[in-house]
Design brief:
heterodimer, A: alpha/beta, TIM Barrel, 2 domains, 12 helices, 32% helix, B: Rossmann fold, Rossmann fold, elongated
Chain lengths: 325, 391
C-alpha cells in the first residue's frame, strides 16, 4: 500500500477497516470500507470502535506478554499511570487505566512489540483506499458487486466519501453506502450523486424514543430520507431496522416504517437486522461501558412474524423470503 | 504524609462536588467540610450535579453553585443525601453533548472547567468520588486543579484507606436484609443464594456473611469450586436443619472453565483494574448473573430446593449508619485540612488511628481486595463458613 498520496490535494479520511468479500451490504460481492465517526450514540451499537472520529487506542490482553517479559508501556513515553500491573495478581499482565490512557497516540501504540496495543483507525487517501477496493474488481464484475461505504457514519466525511465513490464510479465499480442520515442535508447531497444503492437505518419511529435510545430526535433524519427519495429517483433505497426486543421489535414500529417508505417506489426493500451481541468484545478492548446490558436477542419466531408483515407489504411470498435469508 | 506547607488561612473560596454513584448520607461529608472551612474563615460552595453546575451554569437558577453558608450547614440533615445532586457521568474530558448540527459528540471541557473555577475565584476542589472518579481527578490535578478527594464506595475496594465512606451503611443494610432472607429460608426449608454488591472485592459479602452466620460466602478473591460448596452444604443442610444461606458477591469467580453459553454478559469490567479481557476470570457479569449461576449449578448437585435472590442497588439508599455519619464528618474536615496544608492531588484516608492524606497516584490502579490472611477470613473459617473451595 502506498504511504504518500498520489494527489496531494485529494481529501483524506479516517478509515477504520477495509473488509473484502462481503455479501450483505448491497448487491453481489462487495468490499466494505468502514469510516470512523458517528453522530448517534445507539445504546446497542455493535461497532463502538467506529464512534469516535479520531483514531483511538485499543488493548488486546491476549497478546500482552506481561511486565517481566516486556513492560515497555509501564514507562515513558507512555502517560504516567495509564498502564499498570495489579499487585498480588496471579499474572503480571498489564492493565489499562482508560481514563489516563485515552490520549495515547499511534506513535506510542506502535512501540508495543506484540501488538497488544493498537490503534483503531488510520488516515488514508482516496487512492490508497481505491487501490485496495480494486483488488476484487473481477468479483464485482461477475456478481454485480462493488464498494460499500459504511461506518460509523460515512456521511460525516462528505468530501472523502464523495471522492471515494466518484473514483469508484470512474473505475466502473458499483457503489453503495450504509447510513443513518443524521447529518446536515448539504452532506447528503454532496455524496448521493455518486451512489447506486443507499442502505439506510430506520431505528425508531417516535422522536422522543429515538432520542432516548440514540441521543437525538429523528425529525431531521426522516426529513433527509424523504428529500433523498424524491431528489434521487434513480437510486435504490433499502431500509433497515436493527431489531431489539423492548426497543423496536414490534409490529407498531414495522408498520410505521412501511407507511413511511411504501409511497416511494425507489425504496425497493426493507430488511430486519436481528440484534446480536457480537460487538461486546470490542467494548472491552476500548474500555467502554456497554449500555444495553441486559437485552436479549429477538426470537426466530418474532423475526419471522415481523418479516411476514414486510413481505406482505412488498407483495412477496413470505416463505420464499425466509428461505433466501 | 505530604508536607503541610500550603496557603495561609485568610479569605479563601473552595468548592466541594459529588461524583457519580449514590451512597447514603453524603450530606455528612459536605457538612464536615463546610464546618471545617467555616472555622478557618473560608467560603465553601457546592457544585451542583457533579461538575455540571460549573460547566452549565445557565441550567441553574443559582448559577450552579450553592453557597454553603453557616446557616445552611447548621440546618442541613446529616442523614440525608442529595443537597448538591449528582450527574450520571463526571468526566470533563469526555462530555457528551448534542452540537449545533444536532449531532452527538464527546468533547473535552476540562479547560473550560478550570477557567470557570478561576473566574469564580475557587482555588481548590474537594471531590467525593469512587474509584474511577479518583483517576479523573488525578488527571485534572495534573492539569492544574488543586484537588483533594474523599473516597466513597459501597464495596470498600478503594486502595490506601481502610474504609471508604458509604461502606458501613451498605454493610449494615446488607446484614439486615440477609437476616430476613435467612428467616425466610428457614420458614420455607430452602437454601437461599443471595447476590450482594462487590464486583472486585468481597468485603461486603464476607463481613455480612459472618454477621448473619451464612453457610458459605463466595467472593472474587477465592475462585469457587461449586462441587465443594455443594458437598459442604449437604453436610450442613440436614433434616434437623433443613435450610441454608449462601452469600455470593456479584464478582465471584469460579474454578471450572467457563461454558460457552456462560460467557460474560456484561463488560462493565472494562473499567475494572482487575479485568484483563473477555477470558479473564475477573470480567464482571451483569447484576444477577452470579446468583443465577450458583443457584442453578448447586441445584444440579443438591436435592434440597434452592432459590436465587439479588440484593443489587437497594443497599445504596436509606440513612447512613452512625459510623458513616462520623466518618463523613471526619473525611470532610480532613479534606479541608489537606487543602489548608496544600496537599493537593491527594485522597483523605483512614489509616487507623489516623486520618491521613495519600497521593492520588498511590490510590489509583489498585484494588483493596480481601487478603488471604485477613482476620475476616480466619473468623469465617473458625465459624465454619465455607469460602469457595476451602472445605
Amino acid at each position: 500500500m502506498r504511504t504518500q498520496p498520489v494527489n496531494p490535494s485529494a481529501p483524506t479520511g479516517v478509515v477504520l477497516n477495509i473488509q473484502r468479500y462481503c455479501s450483505h451490504d448491497g448487491p453481489g460481492i462487495r468490499t466494505n470500507v468502514f469510516l470512523k465517526g458517528c453522530s448517534l450514540r445507539c445504546k446497542w451499537c455493535g461497532n463502538p470502535e467506529s464512534i469516535a472520529f479520531k483514531p483511538e487506542l485499543s488493548y488486546d490482553p491476549g497478546r500482552c506478554t506481561g511486565k517481566q517479559a516486556c513492560g515497555l508501556c509501564l514507562k515513558a513515553p507512555f502517560p504516567d499511570g495509564a498502564f499498570y500491573v495489579v499487585e498480588g495478581a496471579t499474572d503480571d499482565k498489564v492493565h489499562v487505566n482508560w481514563d489516563l490512557a485515552g490520549d495515547c497516540d499511534e506513535a506510542q501504540a506502535s512501540l508495543c512489540p506484540t501488538g497488544a496495543l493498537e490503534m483503531f483507525g488510520k488516515r488514508m487517501t482516496v487512492d490508497e483506499v481505491l487501490e485496495e477496493v480494486e483488488k476484487d474488481e473481477s468479483f464485482y464484475r461477475s456478481t454485480g458487486g462493488g464498494l460499500t461505504l459504511s461506518g460509523g457514519e460515512c456521511l460525516l466525511q462528505p468530501d472523502f466519501s464523495a471522492a471515494l465513490l466518484e473514483g469508484a464510479h470512474e473505475r466502473g465499480i458499483n457503489t453503495a453506502i450504509e447510513t443513518a442520515c443524521n447529518v446536515p442535508w448539504k452532506f447528503v447531497e454532496k455524496v448521493l450523486p455518486h451512489v447506486d444503492t443507499v442502505l439506510h437505518d430506520h431505528k425508531l419511529t417516535i422522536p422522543e424514543r429515538h432520542k432516548k435510545w440514540t441521543g437525538v430526535s429523528n425529525e431531521r433524519i426522516l426529513a433527509n430520507f424523504k428529500k433523498a427519495y424524491e431528489m434521487f429517483p434513480d437510486i435504490d433505497f433499502v431500509t433497515r431496522t436493527p431489531l431489539i426486543p423492548g426497543v423496536n421489535a414490534d409490529e407498531e414500529h414495522i408498520r410505521a416504517v412501511l407507511a413511511f417508505i411504501r409511497p416511494h417506489k425507489n425504496v425497493i426493500d426493507y430488511e430486519l437486522l436481528p440484534y446480536h451481541r457480537f460487538g461486546l468484545g470490542k467494548y472491552l478492548s476500548l474500555g467502554v461501558v456497554y449500555e444495553l446490558d441486559d437485552y436479549k436477542t429477538p426470537s426466530d419466531d418474532l423475526v419471522k412474524h415481523l418479516q411476514s408483515i414486510i413481505d406482505e407489504a412488498f407483495g412477496r411470498n413470505s416463505s420464499t423470503t425466509q428461505s433466501q435469508k | 504524609m505530604p508536607q503541610e506547607s500550603g496557603h495561609a488561612s485568610s479569605q479563601r473560596r473552595i468548592a466541594i462536588m459529588v461524583g457519580a454513584g449514590h451512597v447514603p448520607g453524603i450530606n455528612a461529608v459536605i457538612m464536615g467540610a463546610a464546618k471545617a472551612a467555616g472555622m478557618l474563615g473560608w467560603e465553601m460552595v457546592g457544585i451542583r450535579d457533579g461538575f455540571d453546575g460549573l460547566l452549565y451554569p445557565e441550567r441553574y437558577r443559582d448559577g450552579g453553585l450553592l453557597t454553603l453558608s453557616p446557616e445552611l450547614v447548621e440546618s442541613l440533615d446529616p442523614t440525608a443525601a442529595g443537597l448538591l445532586g449528582q450527574a450520571p457521568r463526571v468526566d470533563p474530558f469526555h462530555v457528551r453533548r448534542v452540537n449545533e448540527d444536532d449531532m452527538v459528540e464527546e468533547v473535552d471541557m476540562s479547560d473550560e472547567l478550570l477557567k470557570r473555577l478561576q473566574s469564580e475565584d475557587i482555588d481548590a476542589v474537594i471531590s467525593v468520588v469512587g474509584g474511577r472518579g479518583l483517576s479523573i481527578l488525578y488527571k485534572l490535578h495534573r492539569k492544574g486543579l488543586n484537588a483533594v478527594c474523599v473516597p466513597r464506595s459501597i464495596e470498600n475496594e478503594i486502595a490506601s484507606t481502610m474504609v471508604s465512606f458509604g461502606f458501613n451503611s451498605a454493610l449494615s443494610f446488607t446484614i439486615e436484609l440477609l437476616g430476613r432472607v435467612r428467616e425466610a429460608a428457614r420458614a420455607a426449608r430452602k437454601i437461599a443464594v443471595v447476590e450482594v454488591l462487590g464486583e472486585q472485592a468481597g468485603w461486603l459479602a464476607l463481613q455480612a456473611g459472618i454477621a448473619v452466620g451464612a453457610d458459605a460466602v463466595l467472593i472474587p478473591e477465592i475462585p469457587c469450586d461449586l462441587r465443594a460448596v455443594a458437598s459442604g452444604l449437604q453436610d450442613k443442610v440436614t433434616g434437623r436443619r433443613p435450610y441454608g444461606l449462601v452469600v455470593v458477591a456479584e464478582g465471584a469467580t469460579f474454578t471450572e472453565a467457563p461454558k460457552a453459553e456462560a460467557k460474560p454478559l456484561s463488560l462493565k469490567a472494562s473499567l475494572s483494574p482487575l479485568a484483563t479481557g473477555e477470558a479473564s476470570e475477573h470480567v464482571i457479569r451483569r447484576s444477577g448473573y452470579a446468583a443465577e449461576k450458583v443457584a442453578h449449578e448447586l441445584q444440579l448437585l443438591i436435592a434440597h430446593e434452592i432459590f436465587p435472590l439479588v440484593m443489587g442497588p437497594w443497599v445504596r439508599g436509606g440513612a447512613p449508619t452512625a459510623v458513616d455519619r462520623q466518618l463523613g464528618m471526619a473525611y470532610g474536615a480532613g479534606a479541608v485540612r489537606a487543602v489548608k496544608a496544600g496537599s493537593y492531588g491527594s485522597m483523605v484516608a483512614f489509616v487507623p488511628p489516623d486520618v491521613k492524606f495519600v497521593p492520588l497516584a498511590q490510590a489509583i490502579n489498585k484494588v483493596r481486595t480481601v487478603p488471604a490472611d485477613s482476620e475476616f477470613m480466619k473468623i469465617a473459617r473458625s465459624l465454619g463458613i465455607f469460602l469457595g473451595r476451602e472445605l
